[in-house]
Amino acid sequence: MSTEIRANTMLPARREQITLHTADGLKLIGELALPESRPPQATLICLHPLPTHGGMMDSHIYRKAAFRLPALADLAVLRFNTRGTVSEAGRSEGSFDGGSSERFDVAAALEFAEFHDLPNVWLVGWSFGTDLTLVHGLDPLVEGAVLISPPLRWSIEEHLAAWAESGKPVHALIPELDDYLRPDEARRRFAAIPQAEVIGFPDTKHLWVGKAEAALDAIVRVVAPDVPTPLPRTWDGPSETRQVTIIDS
């Protein structure tokens, strides 16, 4: 029997609560979701929006990515709370540092992926997470970056120049009605990275409310181009309804 994939539908996967260990001695709460019976073809490391404004590993695009993409696209999804950030899974140690000490958090996630031989690692940043990606994420392990609603707040010319020089692909998903950076301005700013692709999303705001499917389809088109999109909106097989408690940091 076919089941409609809804916001809280959790499809089959191997899910493991993980702890990331930073170089400055903190433990970060996270989860790794893997395809149930096959090796992943690529890995998403999800860097969440600003924790002082409600961002965390359960932010809705990332929660839906972890619930769906291991089954629908054979992707590994690693999501975690940066320092001081809390979600239903728990609070990561430390305190928010405005994107500075969070460099250790990004490095810890990359070290985990490397140690566990996770393949074809892509950074997927959203809002604050896009600045973490551009400022701290240019690592030899990283295949490229997907940037959701990038405000380009802390990312300066030298960071964009470094990505340009690397040649690594950068895909910016820009809401038409974004509060911080809209498509025309984004194309001007990202011109500093010749290989960057800027994609505008009509009738979409910074938080992508009601638009998660469009974001997931765009991510899959980049990191798993052999997977047909749009992704299925129904599922034939076992599934669960998983209500996640959203916790205010």
Low-confidence stretches: none
How many E-type strands?
14
Please tell me how large the radius of gyration is: 17 Å
CATH architecture: 3-Layer(aba) Sandwich
First-residue to last-residue Cα separation: 39 Å
Q: What is the average of the pLDDT values?
A: 97
Secondary-structure element order, as H and E? Answer: EEEEEHEEEHEHEHEHEHEE
InterPro entries: AB_hydrolase_fold
Organism: Saccharopolyspora spinosa
Protein name: AB hydrolase-1 domain-containing protein
Q: Describe it for me?
A:
The structure is a single chain. This protein is an alpha/beta fold and 249 residues long. It has one domain: Rossmann fold, CATH 3.40.50.1820. The chain has helices at residues 60-73, 102-115, 128-136, 157-166, 183-189, 212-223; strands spanning 2-4, 9-10, 14-21, 27-34, 42-47, 75-80, 86-87, 90-91, 121-126, 142-148, 170-175, 197-201, 234-236, 240-241. The protein has an eight-stranded mixed beta sheet with strand order 3-4-6-5-9-10-11-12, sandwiched between helices. Helix 1 (60-73) crosses helix 6 (212-223) and helix 2 (102-115) packs across helix 3. The chain is globular.
